[in-house]
Amino acid sequence: MESPTLGEIPGSNHAPANAAVPKRGGIDSAGHATPGLARRANASPRGATPKFEASEPALGLRDRVLFEAMRAALFLLSLIPDFVLYPLAVAGALIVHRLDRRHARIGLKNLAIAFPECSEAERQRILRASYANLGRSAAEYIRLGGCFYRRLIGRISYDGIERREDVERRYPGRGVLILTAHFGSFELLPAGHALRGHQISLVHRTQSFVAGDALLSWVRRRAGVETLRKRSAARAVLKALRAGKLVGIPLDQNTRRREAVFVSFFSELAATTGGLARLALMSGAPVVPVFIVRQPDSRTHRIEIQDEIPLAKTGNLEADILENTRRFNAAIEAIVRRYPEQFLWTHRRYRTRPPGASKVYDC
């Protein structure tokens, strides 16, 4: 999953707010649907009417051959039993941790910002555990793209299902915006939900690696996840919400300055898309944080449905967008503080800086 760019909403001439909070420290496939993340749409020029991207990006001969080869590899790898597949995937991830020093430095810098009170050794431990979580998530991605993928349903339980039912009662016939992050086995979150029969959409930014993007779309669609391409994401999301669907939006990644509001994330100002707040204010849909938490046995998962986030509605649009985005970041920060080993630390979360601020990363 990747953080969507939803900074501009059809019918709105407001540029994304840049005010700051004080710093405290493609391809068709038969498939079913997975939980809460909506199709992304490629950014339209400011003020332009977004266009729907009706089909998956076309694959040329080379990309199609590569796509088919990767899909075949997923099926073959999925034949490996769990007691072999999981250790292999974790070992591969830890090798990457040792060899890819650039991303390791990024992860340690992020951890120093998030947990200044921790020792260097403790941050190293968290980062290593985060890589191990990515390895286990890769094994589950192989399962999703390979044989017997429906068996994953038995490994997922819910916590807070009564909160979802309460939201459905209070907002009958209205869709729900799912706030989530690259946390836990994040590809399994929408897939597991969809495999249980809950319609869900996912916002997705088309990747430059065309064959890999097609494989990702195929795996999600096979599980039942509806993909909303970044091109015209805002309009597609509003349409999905009017149809009463769940729309999942990961909000934990850096965004471009023109689409960003700068709000605190672990006491550092982070460029965060204001699109989710705009969509919530425009549609009246509730925003509910949902995360998938890996359990101590490393094989099972709990989907944690949290309380709806109350929205600030003062009538000052830019101030409300800023405050609501701050609340969304706070919800992500809270789950990461509880389970830091399950967060993706190697992303340059603070790459886009507020005017006049110094760079965070040297790589």
Please give a structural write-up.
The chain is α/β, with parallel strands linked by helices and 363 residues long. It has a domain of 189 residues. The protein is built from 10 helices and 9 strands. Strands 1-9-8-2-5-3-4 form a 7-stranded mixed beta sheet, sandwiched between helices. Helix 1 crosses helix 7, helix 2 crosses helix 4 and helix 3 packs across helix 4. The longest helix is centred in the middle third of the chain and has 26 residues. The radius of gyration is 20 Å and the shape is globular.
Major sheet, described briefly? Answer: 7 strands, mixed
Written as H for each helix and E for each strand, in order along the chain, the element string is HHHHEHEHEHEHEEEHEEH
The overall pLDDT average reads: 85
Shape: globular
Sheet with most strands: strand arrangement: 1-9-8-2-5-3-4
Structural class: alpha/beta
* Helix amount: 40-55%
- Based on CA atoms alone, the radius of gyration comes out at 20 Å
How many DSSP helices? Answer: 10
Residues in β-strands, percent:
5-15%
The first-to-last residue Cα distance is: 23 Å
- List unreliable stretches of 5+ residues: 1-5, 7-55
